[in-house]
Amino acid sequence: MDKLVLLGGRSLEGEVAISGSKNTALPLMSAAMLVDGVSTLYNVPRLRDIYTYSNVLRVTGAHVHYDPETRTMHIDASRVGHFEAPYELVKKMRASFYILGALLGRFGRARVSLPGGCAWGPRPVNLHLEGFRALGAEISLDRGYVVARAPASGLRGARIRFEPPSVGATVNVLLAAVLARGTTRLENAAMEPDVVCFGEALNRMGARISGLGTPVLEIEGVPELQPLLAHTPPDRIELGTYMIAAAMTRGRVRLLQAEPAHLGDFLEIFRQTGARVEVGPDWIYVEGPEVIQPVSIQTAVYPGFPTDLQAQWTAMMTQADGDSTVTDTIYFDRFKHVPELLRMGAQIEVVGNRAHIRGRTRLIGAQVMSTDLRGSVSLVLAGLVAEGRTDVLRVYHLDRGYEALEVKLSALGADIRREQYEEFGTVVLPLEEEEQM
User: Fold this and answer.
1) Residues taking part in catalysis
2) Average pLDDT over every residue of 137-142
């Protein structure tokens, strides 16, 4: 198993390119399953989740070819004939559940395992299933699998309201609704850039979706779609993570191939830390402040502060000149990174869905364990400023969503490397003195 080894204390300097968005690439791969033909996706990041979902598509009969050097993917869904996605694959990532909407929308039936993913908090799929039922699908559960079947006449348009708004449910129901008969109205739909880019791609395929970027989407069903040609936009969460890394290390970093407009409210909130920020059409320059100002945040649906950046923000606030709070209103128990930060000397108290963070904390390198994707990178950020050596274990979580993290950080001057280790090595204890005699 792999781990990342860091020696803290270095400022990040230089420039780095932002990779394509995983959270957009996976829906785009799902859209390719809606057509009888070959779709081409560009700027697809080289991530564990991309490889996992490629295998989910292959199980159905799709041909998937991915070139990791050019970040180009070709998906031929003309021979799809198996309508089941097995537990062995779907358990690895929750976004695999998108295959249900794609198969149900195109073929009218699917059998998909309930999803897995990060080991924290409930992310129920009931919103997805309620949406499919509203479209006329018959939904049942069979030994951990969701079995969905459309009526003989096909799916039909419906009025569906999400409470709360959900990116996953919005994407999945869109996959089924674009080929349904009649008009579908999605209320309280997700407005994230990932959803907007996905919806725009569906429209280029021949779908009729209006209202993208607003809470209400209107979908006029069409009988068929054309193959997709799409460029995956930059990853806004990776962008925010490197901005935080630059501020924490008092560095000077230019982030290229970025989409600043996708940051929403995060950009202005980040400026409140005292960091100097310059914004161009496709780049952001960050210069870390001498003194990080404490800024309390509360996560919210887009364009509010992203829940996927709260763990990183928590790490940064341990270095702020004062106390702060981080409140997660999206996932109430998304704080499994906190016990590991405590091992490094952080002073954080979690009460309910709020973390109270003591600033001006001296972090000391330690061996820490990754538990989920965003929590893992918060430990790396802490290691960048900690005294001594930090070992971040189980970085397969990181590999799900951060492309070549250690390579990019090394290019910016961080002392970081990847090593292999034995997760459950044999421990030999010394004999007691009387047993040695």
Assistant:
1) 118
2) 95
